[in-house]
Design goal:
Layout: H1 20-23, H2 35-65, H3 69-105, H4 116-131
Helix pairs in contact: 2-3
């Protein structure tokens, strides 16, 4: 395929730095990020993206049945891109969760008494417990 004679317009965003890692902002104090909120946000965002993927797949199937093949291909491409985006979002938020957990716990090393997995499990349990409301006591 020859691109000779074709014009391609590229308008990079003016706020984007030449180094993509500079655009990724992470809170300076990762210990302050609420882990329960991160998990809920990840679940909601990924579920919403996957819901859109299902809609696009259904619309693509409908378009094929109606003979609108170019629309069907476009919708399949959106579906594929949505599924990729859901995976990227999930991975990035999980990575932020890990960074926050590491900031809270510091350098985890296995000790003769406790494994790294046990230490992480304790940290997650503490986070979940702190996010829950205290139960109301029934009067006697």
């Amino acid at each position: 395929m020859s691109v000779e004679g074709k014009r391609f317009i590229r308008n990079p965003p003016s706020h984007q730095s030449p180094n993509p890692t500079e655009d990724q902002t992470v809170p300076s104090d990762l210990r302050s990020i609420d882990l329960a909120t991160l998990n809920i946000a990840r679940e909601v965002i990924v579920a919403s993206l996957r819901n859109h993927v299902c809609q696009w797949e259904q619309q693509s199937t409908d378009a094929v049945a109606e003979g609108r093949l170019s629309n069907a291909v476009m919708l399949q491409n959106w579906s594929f891109a949505g599924e990729l985006l859901a995976g990227v979002v999930s991975t990035e938020i999980s990575g932020l969760f890990s960074k926050s957990l590491n900031a809270r716990l510091g350098d985890l090393t296995t000790t003769p008494h406790r494994s790294v997995a046990d230490q992480i499990l304790d940290a997650v349990a503490l986070e979940v417990a702190s996010a829950q409301e205290a139960p109301e006591l029934a009067p006697f």
